[in-house]
Each structure stands twice: as structure tokens, then as C-alpha cells.
Specification:
Blueprint lengths: L8 H14 L7 H4 L10 E5 L1 H6 L1 H5 L5 H7 L4 H7 L3 H4 E8 L9 E6 L3 H14 L4 E6 L2 E6 L10 E5 L4 E5 L2 H9 L8 H9 L6 E6 L10 H8 L1 E10 L5 E9 L2 H28 L4 H9 L1 E5 L2 E8 L1 H9 L3
Antiparallel strand pairs: 1-2, 1-8, 2-3, 3-7, 4-5, 5-6, 6-7, 8-9, 9-10, 10-12, 11-12
């Protein structure tokens, strides 16, 4: 099940490093970047600019435009994709994960935005439900159909509920009721004004965008040593993208309730990075593909100023090319 909130310092650093290594490159307007309708109770989100990643010059330089190789690597059935009229690398524009947090930590909504042939997708899902009742079930929500999928992910432990809402939107959640509620209330304004203001401030030229307010983190789920740190956080803005020189860069600003909380958070992040470097050093010695991640974590620097803690890192695009294509 998706766990938006559970982390330790080393896990947080590793997640940022791996995410920034894998997700970069974005050029789109703010209106396009956040055209997806978030549930009204959203207090945290991660937005992936998938279209800009695939279309970026660096991605093409690394051969990512060779879609047949990627589809094969992702273990997609080419014939089924053709039957549905679905090309993942052309049709998906963005992927957004939105969560309410707080006492509803198990809830989240996954929003796929792009260009879809809804009729074909629904027809294929209906056929699968008829021929494979153990793994696919059908539920009705007004004039829409919700598909309950039991084998959507490897080692999936709970069902995934999916709705093909339109030719431009596909919704998914691990909770059927939350999916229905989010769709029924689409168009509603965000309830948390602080979160809404932060979303508006996000830089549109991002590969990965993340923002959360402190109320998104449930205190009961946070390990005791880190509870006081999380309680001192007001909000988080994360920025990861590609520079003019095609380097991968990451910047995260965490706004705290007071200066002391900012200093404590910096100390925790420094400890986490030290642990991550030790772990990644051992892993990279055996798996050379992890070298860029190791170097990226090495580049990360933290700073604390008044009520803000910042984390910045940079990875040369050439290192990514060498890791994927091999040094020439």
C-alpha cells in the first residue's frame, strides 16, 4: 500500500536522490502543469512531468525516444497496448499523487493526465473483468465504471481501484470510496488555504514537484525521535529540474515554525545524508549503475537560515549519460 508519510532521515535522502536521478527535465506553463483537479482535502502532492522527461534533449540523447526498448523493459504487452490504442510514452503527460494526510494517511489519489482513448480502455477492462473475474471486478459509480484490480502491481497486497474518467484523465486509489468522493467533488476548491497558496507558488519549470503542509503528517505514525522535528515544520516545497547545461538539480525548502526547528531539521538531514553515503558507497561498489546516485548525494548541501532549511544538490548530465550509455 502507498505510504506517503513513513520515512527516516536516510530514507528521505535516498528517496530524494533516486527520484531526482530518475525524474528530471520539465518545460511547461503553470496552467498546464497543474491542470489536474486535486481532491479538496489534499494536503500533500508529488507531481511528475512525464511528458517533459520523455521529450527532453537529454532523454533523447540517451535513446529514450526508442520507445520499443522501453516498453519491452517495462514488460508491457505490445499487442494489448495496440488493441487499446494506448502508447504510454506518447499518451501520458503527467502523473500526480495527492494525499490528505493527517488521520487519513492511507488515502491517496493517483491522477494520470494525458490523451487517452477512453472507450477502448474501458472495453478492454470490461473484457478482462469478464474473462478474469478473480483479478478484475466491476463497480458502478453513477455513469462511470470503477475497475477493482488485484494484480496491478508486483506483490500487490491490497486492491487498486481505477476509473477512466475521461479522454484526458485516469484516476486510481487503494480505496474505492475515496476515489468515488474525489471524482464526485471534482471542481471543488482546495480546503486548506495554506496548501493552496503553496501550490500556486510552485515553479512550473519542474521535473518533479512536491509540496506539503505540516498537517499532512500524522503525529502517531512518526517515530518518537523525529516527532519534535516534524511538528516544527510549517511547509515543504521541493524543486528538482534540469538546468540550461542539462545538469540535474534539486532544491528543497522547508519552512519551519521557528529558527530552532530549522536548525534541528538541518542536523537530522545531515545525519541522514551521512548514513545514506555509507549505504550507497557499499552498494555502488557492487552496482556501478548506482554511482550517479552516490555522487548526487555527495553533492547535497544543507543550510539553515532563520525559519527555513534548504537542501540543494547537482548531478552533471554527462554522468547520467555515462551511467546509462556507458563512457565513450
Amino acid at each position: 500500500m502507498f505510504k506517503f508519510w513513513r520515512f527516516t532521515p536516510v530514507a528521505l535522502v535516498l528517496a530524494l536522490a533516486v527520484g531526482s536521478f530518475a525524474i528530471s527535465y520539465a518545460q511547461e506553463s503553470r496552467q498546464k502543469a497543474f491542470k489536474v483537479q486535486l481532491p479538496a482535502d489534499t494536503q500533500a502532492l508529488i507531481h511528475l512531468n512525464f511528458r517533459a522527461m520523455i521529450d527532453s534533449p537529454l532523454a533523447k540523447k540517451m535513446g529514450i525516444e526508442k520507445k520499443s526498448e522501453i516498453i519491452k523493459a517495462l514488460d508491457f504487452d505490445v499487442e494489448i497496448l495496440a488493441e487499446m490504442g494506448f502508447d504510454p510514452l506518447k499518451d501520458i503527460d503527467s502523473i500526480t499523487i495527492a494525499a490528505p494526510g493527517g488521520g487519513d494517511m492511507e488515502k491517496c489519489l493517483i491522477i494520470l493526465a494525458g490523451k487517452f482513448k477512453a472507450d477502448k480502455l474501458v472495453a478492454k477492462a470490461n473484457a478482462d473483468a469478464k474473462n478474469n473475474e478473480d483479478n478484475v471486478k466491476i463497480h458502478k459509480a453513477g455513469d462511470k465504471t470503477i475497475f477493482e484490480l488485484k494484480c496491478f502491481f508486483p506483490d500487490q497486497q491490497v486492491p487498486m481501484f481505477m476509473m477512466i474518467a475521461s479522454n484526458s484523465t485516469i484516476l486510481a486509489s487503494t480505496q474505492k470510496e475515496y476515489l468515488e468522493k474525489a471524482f464526485a467533488n471534482s471542481g471543488s476548491k482546495l480546503a486548506n488555504k495554506d496548501f493552496s497558496a503553496l501550490v500556486e507558488k510552485l515553479d512550473p519549470d519542474l521535473a518533479i514537484s512536491m509540496v506539503a503542509v505540516s498537517s499532512a503528517f500524522p503525529s502517531k505514525a512518526i517515530p518518537e525521535p523525529y516527532k519534535v522535528i516534524i511538528e516544527g515544520i510549517d511547509s515543504i516545497i521541493g524543486i528538482g529540474g534540469i538546468g540550461i547545461d542539462e545538469d540535474v538539480t534539486l532544491k528543497i525548502n522547508v519552512f519551519t515554525k521557528d529558527e530552532d526547528s530549522s536548525k534541528k531539521l538541518k542536523e537530522t538531514m545531515d545525519q541522514g545524508m551521512a548514513q545514506a553515503l555509507g549505504f550507497l558507497g557499499l552498494m555502488a561498489a557492487q552496482e556501478k549503475e548506482l554511482t550517479p546516485v552516490l555522487e548526487f548525494v555527495k553533492s547535497m548541501k544543507t543550510s539553515s537560515k532563520e525559519k527555513m532549511m534548504s537542501l540543494e544538490g547537482k548531478l552533471p548530465g554527462k554522468m547520467i549519460e555515462d551511467a546509462i550509455l556507458g563512457s565513450k
